Amino acid sequence: MSDIIQLLPDSVANQIAAGEVVQRPSSAIKELMENAIDAGADHIKLIIKDAGKSLIQVIDNGCGMSVTDARLCFERHATSKIRKAEDLFAIRTMGFRGEAMASIAAIAHVELKTRRIEDELGTVVEIEGSEVIQQYPDQAPAGTSISVKNLFYNIPARRNFLKSNSVELRHIIDEFQRVALAHPNIFFSFHSDGNELFHLPKETLKQRIVHLFGNNYNQRLVPVEETTSILNINGFIGKPEFAKKTRGEQFFFVNNRYIKDPYLNHAVMNAYEEILPADTFPLYVLFIDIDPSKIDINVHPTKTEIKYEDEKAIYAILRSAVKRSIGRYNIAPTLDFEQETGFNNLITPKPLDEIQAPTINFNPNFNPFDDGVKKHTRSYIAPEQVERRSGIPQNWDSLYQITETEEAEQLSLLPAEEDAKSEAEIIQPSDQPKKQFFQLHNRYIVSQIHSGFMLIDQQAAHERILFEQFQQQLINNQGTSQQSLFPQTIELNPADFALVQDILPEIHALGFQLRPFGKTTYIVDGIPADLENINESQIIEKLLEDFKNQSDLRLNKRERLAKSLAKNASIKPGTKLDNDGMAELIDKLFACESPNISLFGKPVIITYTLQELAERFGRII
User: Fold this and answer.
1) Cα–Cα distances in angstroms (integers) from residue 480 to residues 500, 525, 530, 534, 535, in the given order
2) CA proximity to 129, closest of 108, 101, 103, 147
3) 159-185 pLDDT, tens per residue?
């Protein structure tokens, strides 16, 4: 029997490795940008087309490569970061595996242009599917430019698994933000399909956060800083009132490398305990500087997981550092029994014995209709004359008593029978008795039925009504809109802006009137007519947050959008309703296709029968 074990060709091995390293365009962008940082660049430019499917180009002004290095960098396990196994525990660079360039070259058309500062000519290398097409000298600026075209061209199955351009663009923006946050001392720019999404100059960390997420984040940040013999922590956390219902603004960096660590995230959430709204996630951008020999980053091909030598100590230090910042900047309530706070807000620094109570002086003879001709003459006018001339009664405090007396006199002129009849008409305008509803704690509606009574969750009922109404509007594409008297401007981060572009037709079908204004800004000209007394910017932000937070894959895009809007536009617990409002709500609920089930699979109506009530009271019917 012949041998059956064979060595795989390099092209096949590279494609297998690419399946771990390059999962989507954002993965390739991460590897290329980290290589540019390791090359010592302080100016990095990212250019993409079709969300990275057609083109990914990273241009830097780093050290460049020689002719030999330009060819060798595409070989597997070729790297300049480590020389021996011990170097794995002293890594300060972003890359070290030597797999990224070989993996990218195995599944795309790659063109590399590079030149060292001391060289007169640069080098151009063109590769298709791990095969070098040509290599030649050429003029090139100092640094490196790598163009990746037609990603996954030779793996159609992987290319078909890619999502829409808007989804892939959001993943690219996420990776770009992580790299940009970790290196605020480097200039970054990001161009997508000819539009510049980011232009980030060299700046401080706080300025970088504001430039990435928006100017409104300037007031949301709280600094964190802790220095110990084990590790150093610095960065920013967000104030709890600005926490969001979706993840995505939580960043951990260990030695400037972005990582995902649920254990450390639990430490931060524990520090926010009892001051964070339920089911919300605060913003944090935290940097942990630790001795590389105390950690192991060679755990996962994406290098986003780390093993720690003493993770319990790191947990405790991180939790205490965050909790201290929360207390230091008066985010959490504190008690100081030695300080009297009753006199902290005095307006005047005068002693208490010099403070006089304010008095009111007025002229009882003031006439607002006086033409001012005789303003220099002073003469006494009797109050009766003032009342006769000006028509203003002097005993103005008894004015309402006069009105009540006149009404009582008018009512007394009616005959007793007519008076009783009119009073009965006010109480009962029709022969049919009006059905009465009751509201419990401004949350539930009680309605009597023949066999007992119903208990209705008013918020769940309204959500069901709005959901089916919005869903019908999306199907018919005929959502009614009310024009805003003063259009509002809403500024979004680039990821949310791309999301709005993806669902903009559905948003218009619901009744929203949005138009782009600048790079990441929309103007809200109108909102759905059913939404009353709602801030336009807040309802759109909440709509996007809930839309991103939904994980039910059974719902399509329209259903998710209708569900998000219904949840945010419904009446909230604690809203008081009159009898007519409760009756209208119940009528609309029973006109729905599924009145008994809420949007989240919970009951809307609970029925209690007389038999059940009798059993609770120990009676037999």
Assistant:
1) 19, 13, 8, 16, 18
2) 108
3) 888 888 888 888 899 999 999 999 999
Any idea how long the chain is? 621
**Contacts with 612 (C-beta within 8 Å, 6 or more apart), sequence order:** 452
Question: Which letter does DSSP use for residue 305 in this model?
Answer: -
CA 50 to CA 162: how far, in whole Å? 12
To 5 degrees, how large is the angle CA 568–CA 495–CA 508? 50
Q: The tokens 């029994």 sit on which residue?
A: 337
Three-class SS state of 57? strand
Q: In three state form, how does the secondary structure of 66-114 look? A: CHHHHHHCCCCCCCCCCCCHHHHHCCCCCCCCCCHHHHHHHCCEEEEEE
- Are 311 and 256 contacting, i.e. CB atoms less than 8 angstroms apart? no
Asked whether 148 and 108 are in contact (CB, 8 A), the reply is yes
Contact, 435 vs 449, CB < 8 A?
A: no
Which tokens in the block code for residue 396? 């103005």
Quick: pLDDT tens for 59-88.
999 999 999 888 888 887 666 655 555 555
Q: Which of 274, 259, 265 is nearest to 326 (CA)?
A: 274
